[in-house]
Amino acid sequence: MSEEKRSQTEFIAKISPERKKIRELKFDLYVYGSMISENVGGWAFHIINKQDQSSLLSGTEQNTNEQRIKLFPIIEGIKWIVNNVERKYRKYIQITIHSESIFSVNLIKEWIGQWVSEDVLETKPNADMLKEIYEYIKQVQISAKCSTKLVSPYLFSLESLVNKQI
Fold it and tell me: Between 140 and which of 4, 51, 52, 93 could a Cys-Cys bridge form, CB atoms 3.0 to 4.6 Å apart?
């Protein structure tokens, strides 16, 4: 065994099980939501963890609107991740949300924090969902990236999945 390989092996062996667990708590959450017909929306999310394990879920919502159907897979995806991590490790969760919705990305990156600091969150449309997202933002580290289905095969497949629900 080469000296470099041996030192890498020794380094990895010294990492505590808790530190290894913390390093594993990075997730990519791909989300898609769209109106299928008037008042009916379809949504889907795809979660991929650091070990390339994935979970995919989709569904429809009745009596909804464009903004709510874009928020729904974000909330459900975060909820799925948080509920599948032991409570003592939840503070180490890091989620990167990938969406083609500029609304969703700006909401996570800027608006929700601004609205809370200005004490106007309650006055915004869909305040119930915004408060739920904010509660998760306080618990876990969440970032957001704008992507397109042309660049991301995951977003393309989510859109196809939602469109099949019509």
Answer: 93
